[in-house]
């Protein structure tokens, strides 16, 4: 694997910065650098290339896991793995000719729930079975279907891989090496910036019409229940108090209670209500109090009001929640360029949750061109167990996954759910990561059916069972020619940093990832495999880490695939434009340049679950290409030199590691 | 002067924190504290009460200057000076009975420019004369009018007072003392907060309807030319390019140039334009480059476009600038609770500037219930001199002040200007403070007529001539029963910290005041005399000091009279709601509580130039009272305990200092 690096940006390289070097010189130089790095940092290395081997092992593991679940893995890294990497000169972007320059948006579907499209009829209806908590698919004769069963992941294999990753992440010399590589990446970027900042600005200015305001931005991490700001929710509740005073909104002990009676029992008149009383905003007293923070979802501290207004499953059949969400969507559609990926909850304590949620969405037509739903699954086994909703962990998994497999097997079993799932792009796993984990996951941990402990199982336990089922579900849906789900989890916000090992193996992208700053090896691996990190510095600022100490700007400099998101506008934002507010603060506090802003926005679009045909329209026809060739500045407003720099830097790093590959 | 302090808030005081102390005990205790402070900090003190004497002298000077100009001086401090201070118990606020609770806004005037009201006719028309750059007013027999002439301030007196202030501000022991008092204030506040934060929240929640969103906020420092955000200006220019392509917008060398021709010469089509090309936003490359920053006012770097779009005096008679300003006003009126005090420029290089500006405002009806104009005067003598607009400093003063005095003397001499002035609330002095001052102001500095140097005179020179003329003008306008002008200057943003001495003497309130952090004595004096400080941390962040190092939160804790303002939304803000964006960032980065936010907003209303009848409606009928008695939480949303704490703390400090007064 050899290539000539034609630099389109300006940077001093050591040595002979300004001379183009031949590829053989170059390879020699790269080897020198790497060996030098290793000999400095790796004095306890077993053999000469121990560090590369470990990094390679980790990359290959990630590749295997992404192949299994069918989630995103970067082209460039994949090419190195497949040993067919061909360097494409980043200089030729000036003569890109195959760019589709039509700016026509894809035809919006009039029937986005496909209610008028007949359900598919499948020849084969398979036999579904669950073994040790994981779905398996059998043919009529009761045998595993080979083409699907290759996607099965056993608990033993996961534990082995996890253990290997713990070893890699904790290896002292490797930590030193990765820390040094990351510092190198950061310094290289700063050097690049000092020499090319004006050129970047110039490239941006030379593009007609496009600027930060009219490039696409996706809020990659936002909870549906808190996607409106506090003033919006306040106005909505006030309006409903006035117009629907006599609507029955609750049933308690067989007694029907109206909106008016509810507020009367709280002693509140519409005029009285204000955001102070509503009390959903997180001020400084939420710092390091994720427990307290969750109460902030209850308006006026009343879970009743949360139940009435921000819930899909209640006496009014989620009418109000649908209405306010649609108001949020309307504002986004008016803004045109702002998009969101809100999370709706599936708890897993009842089996009809999916079905109800699907009916709710379709009945109220909760849909927008500017939004794509994900499903969040809270890790609350212990609470359901205590409340006797479920008696073991297997029931939770059963409630969550059985409806999905059944409807994939036989669409007519629940047509609404079938149609709803076509609009869902991913699964998120959420909860307070800082809670102590009493039960570790190892070979002695009971299997789901036998897991009847009062304590919650560990993060890793959840991840294995979620991932392995999703991988199988995706394989099944691919077979059925249906959309698949991305596994995009909350990880590394707080708690044990090793949660990030789970997400390195299983997640397409993560929310938060703050704790990557404590794990240099994993941080470097996230870089090499371009795992999306959706960061919410305002949320972090309220809960965990002061704004100016947030690692986002450092991650961005190093070239990690970070995007900006709001998490909970209800709790954290003051203006009507939560995402713009999030960008504004980041730009100001960290002094980001217009190119930085546009790069963050570009990352957010790439990380998002919007369809390829939409991304084609938003980013340009070559958007799947990872270098400057894939960048259409007239749509992204990111200068080609920035993209070229990122691409070539990644290729450089990968070359160091892959030089021993198949040696 | 003795009083009983009845605490309405909860704080440990040393000693006997929880017992109410008798007034005699208290006085003894206060004396102990003060003497102790002095004996620690003041080992070079001439006599026992040297520090108090110096502080007293400074306060009395400030009082004298504010009396002269008729600008705001706080009631409480004044009462100490007049030796008639009576402590009003802050506890009785629960039984405030004389509060006017009507929420009716004052009748909006249909004829705000009073075009249908005949001009006043005065019996006496005075003889106006200018002596050494300062206006004097004579009767027909050529004698000074005694009642006005007491307001005259001579250059010698100003220099003497300034010098005395330099001595006080630079006194080492006094610096230590004030530094310690300020630290004490900050710590006392933190102690107060730790014990009362929940009570504050409770008080806020107990108030119906009112919250941060529906309390009044004034953007106390914003330049009219940059009061729209970049996206707004972009849209406006694009619209005009499309709809007024053939409108003549310029005349160059006798040739008339249309809008279309202007943009053609720049090679720009309406569709092409974006915010990157517009290039008015200040990114990190403006840091410590106030010179560069001023160029950011020129869209696309073209002063021609600034001339066309954001200027009151051009070929289209300021039509476009009026239009876009009215769009800004409209948005504010829709927001209802957000107000601004934009600055319009008078340069002083032509005598008809005032007249033209007045005609512009009235012709285009540039007026809003949500806005009050101030006039900013740039300190650009050197540029006008170089361009030969003027030949000495006196001509600048003549151009600025003569129209004002003449129209006050005889309204019919310029009816538009007369009516325009009724709507103006103050004068601001602006420019880059960091420019080196080649010419100091001392007794040898030439008087204005003889000042023909190529260099700009010093800040102090400007301040003396502006202040002394404004003081005389205000006296004259009071005599005529007309509105007077506040002197509210840019001061202490950068450059020599001693600019703050000028503003301590002459200004009602200041913009920026960052450098107060370098002058503890002056900072303490600003506290004692409650001088308004309008701070713009986002602007500072771009130009001078990183956000998280801004002194605003420290000033707020100590109890200085600070407000939040945007300075230049065109350059610094991204969302449509610049002021809310400014608050949002402050709240997030500094973790301000809802009470802090509301206190900042309250300060902004108090500092603003809106009429008393408006403030009566906004803040409550007792708003002139400075303690909790003057606070109507149902309108301000600031808890009484916070106001009581601020008030009692100030009374405490003043008691320390005034105990030697008239001894």
Automatic annotation (TrEMBL), chains A, B:
Enzyme class: hydrolase
Keyword terms: Hydrolase, Metal-binding, Nucleotide metabolism, Zinc
Gene Ontology, cellular component aspect: cytosol
A GO term for molecular function: AMP deaminase activity
UniProt-listed Pfam families: AMP_deaminase (PF19326)
Cofactor(s) named in the record: Zn(2+)
InterPro entries: A/AMP_deam_AS (IPR006650), AMPD (IPR006329), Metal_Hydrolase (IPR032466)
Source organism, top-level taxon: Eukaryota
GO biological process, one term: IMP salvage
EC numbers for this chain: 3.5.4.6
Family label: Belongs to the metallo-dependent hydrolases superfamily. Adenosine and AMP deaminases family.
Protein's recorded name: AMP deaminase
The species this protein was found in: Strongyloides stercoralis
